[in-house]
Amino acid sequence: VSRDHHPESSRVRVNGVVFGSDRAPVIIAGPCAVESRDQILDVAMRVADAGARMLRGGAFKPRTSPYSFQGLGERGLELLAEARERTGLRIVTEVVAPDDVELVAGYADMLQVGARNMQNFRLLQAVGERSTAVLLKRGLMSNIDEWLGAAEYVVAAGNPRVVLCERGIRTFETATRNTLDVSSIPVLRDRSHLPVIADPSHAAGRREWVPALSRAALAAGADGLVIEVHPDPENALSDGRQSLDLEGFRDLVVELRDIAGALGRPLADRPETSEADGLARRSASR
Ligand code: PEP
Ligand code: MN
User: Residue 106, exposed/middle/buried by CB under 10 A (0-12, 13-18, 19+)?
Assistant: First the structure.
């Protein structure tokens, strides 16, 4: 994954969505977890309409407590696939165990390896043995060398389609959930040819700070953003406090369009998804 061996920035294609190099930053949005059919279809149509290119949502959730909502499992994957069919959004969802890789890859366009699994070497090898693109989040306590080592596991196993995601690290600061290490973005761009995106939601821990961190990450050179969005954040089954509501997300994308334009990497135009537009308009006027 080092530039020493591959000086050109690589592009990672996810069924038509392209990460990296000088391409438009990719906006990925969606809830922390898939909770119900209504929830995921509603979010999908609205974020597609606002300008997201990919939909996120966990079907298998790696929760700190075993008593917290663990996700809908395969039913969640089916709902994500339905959302893709209706909106054209590509799907990224987390895989938490090597034995689940085949199942999740049967539905997802991109496999997320979460922060808590960044050094699960069997899992890295398992996603490396497939051709499905991988979103590798930074571990909570991992430095950049360890993170690049994890990416190397995937690439060495045969899968070069890796996108790195800075999602904040644990520091002495407790005001935020994590500390977004904005500096990892230019460091990675120097050292690695892989695309780098940022997740301001898990870094901030509070929705009111997500816009500022999103702007900072884009300005630092991120190739995209992952933003948690929920139609009813107060009643979300996970990460509601850091989730934007549908209007908040729409407003944020308007702001990001200006920033991306000023940086010379304008966001891609909204794809023509007539069904998504129609349904979004209907649900907005309800
Ligand atoms: C998530 O994306 O919902 C998630 C659990 O992220 P992370 O692994 O970065 O904590
Ligand atoms: Mn989450």
Answer: exposed
Ligand 1 atom closest to Cα of residue 167 = 9
Helix (H) or strand (E) holding 276: helix 274-285
Q: Give per-residue pLDDT as tens, 182-226.
A: 999 999 999 999 999 999 999 999 999 999 999 999 999 999 999
71 lines ligand 1 (CB under 6 A): no
- Intra-chain end-to-end CA distance of the chain, in Å: 49
The reply to whether the predicted model has a pTM over 0.85 is: yes
Q: Is the Cβ atom of 114 under 6 angstroms away from ligand 1?
A: yes
Whose alpha carbon is nearest atom 9 of ligand 1? 115
74 touches 104 (CB < 8 A): no
Q: Is the CB of 32 under 6 A from ligand 1?
A: yes
